[in-house]
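URGENT: need a sanity check before tomorrow's submission.

F., can you look over the FUSC family protein record below? I want to be sure the sequence and structure line up before it goes out.
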Amino acid sequence: MAKFGFDLPRLNFAFRTAVAACLALFIAWLLGLEHPQWSAMTVWAAAQPTRGQLLEKGVFRALGTLIGVAAGVGLVAVSGGDPRPLVIGLSVWIGLCVAAGNLLRGYVSYGAMLSGYSASMVALLDTGHPDHVLSLGADRAATIMVGVVTALAVGWLLTPAAAENEMTGRMRRVTARLLRDLAIALRCGNTTTLGDEQRALLAEMAAIDEVLDPHGAGSLRSRQAVRAMRTVLSVQISLLLAGRRGGHGRNGGIADLLDQAAAGFEAGNGSDGPLARIDAAAFSCRDTDLGDALQTLSEAIRAHRVALGQHVETTTSSGHASHPVVLHRDWIGARQASIRATLCMLLVGLLWVATGWEAAPFLLLGLSIMTTIFSTFDNPAHTMRFVLIGQIFGALGALACRFLVWPFAGNELQVVLLTMPFILGASLFFSHRRTLPTAFDYAMVSLLLLHPVYPLTGDFSSMLSGAIAVVLAPVVALIAYRLIFPLNAGKRLETLIVMMVHELQDMARTEDASQHRLTWRGRLYHRLFRMIRFAERSGDTHRDVTDGGLAVLSVGYSILSLQDLVRSGALTDGEERAAKAALQRLKKVSSEPEKAAAALARASGRLSAAHPRESTSVAGAAAALRANVAFMKRAG
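Structure tokens as predicted:
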């Protein structure tokens, strides 16, 4: 099979998932649930490669289903079977769920999205019987729960625990590279230039951050370890920035200590030896930004080891306290996704109301999924192509099962058993490199269109109409993603650039921004990571985006420093005027970056005699701003 392009480990995972789906179908049928095939669909949706992810996704799928079923029951009860208020209420509900799903992360986001289209499953597929809505909702919820429990039971026995060492090893190697790079800069006395190695380090840190959420699934300890790892990443950015601010000169002694610490990390030394070298280096350059960053790095690594359950000689909480985890929230994208989903549901719902097309609820159900789950993808319009192909194959599979295989059944049990080969066959789609992108939609649509009852119901034309309605959903979604707030990795990158630069302007306008420096800094750090990843996927110039993002951070530090000095009352009249003038210019940095850079340079000159540390920081920000004028204007 490998010779013909099948991935055998993936086939193993897919086949045992298919077996669990068959088991869920059989249990749901034994319990007399109306749509037992939905339990099998739930197994496919809940399947995950590790126990932690399986548990967490199962929990949030259950919670999302319960919330969605309650919302669907409420909508049907209020509408009384009238499709007009039902469509309006469902559209608004899905819009809210999409917004929440785009603001949240991980499986919490998945649960929010699921709350939206679970309401569609209740509200759309039995609109003619509003008097039975409570029993309908209970049946839908029970069907999903059977699938969740079956997926957890089978998956827990056959799925491995998460491999924690992989992420820890990557973090250790990044730390070693960062220390090596800083040691080289200290030996030659040039710490202000950003080289390709530092850009590569930031790219690796961004890649680590992107895949951290799944590693925190399933347990409190894993979640704490991921949070501690994000703190280490944040501290590493601070160290890189502190090294670039200059003013350290040549210092071979500190460089030797950093090299020794790096060698320990490279060798996989889990003792406190490398951390002791970092502590010694921090002590040697105490009362400087570099010393503070080195000391915080040591404390953050110790906190991470504690979160992993490892023993360390000393622990402090300052690493977490000085670098709290503040994650990027895409408020612009969430608003656009919500509007897109609501408009799509309303327009197709109006088509249903106007034409009375019996298969329209299937189109609305499919569209509620297409405009929710896929709204978080980098390029959902491109993804819709594979979704469409998978759904066409799924529809063909369902038609073949219903009209070529089921007629041989003599009772309902045989109908259920004859469905199972089509479920097991989905594992082949999941394990071949060519069909993998379409496999999930094949598995889901083939089951969605099949209703295992005996005697068999429905004719070919009615089932074909339903299949066409389902397949139309990704077509409509593709058009929507193309026309309504077009979305791809490049658009997401531009949104992030706008948000980062405008955040600088907000900081300059907020007189007490320095009182919230931890929040500002944490959010900007995480946005830098996201921006680097989107730049890589969109084909944008990685160098320009990385340099521009670091320039934003440098300017942000200068804003906080200037505000602290102004509020302290320690400035002379001339120094205060220069600092306030720089802050005033930074309020328009997206449109006038050259003027803001000049104002920062003047402020640095004024501060150089009495406040050399702050002057160095402001001068570095002015230089970074001059070098990245084009980046700043992208947000104008």
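My own read: Residues 315-320 have pLDDT under 50 and may be disordered. Residues 51-79 form the longest helix (29 residues). If you see anything odd, call me.
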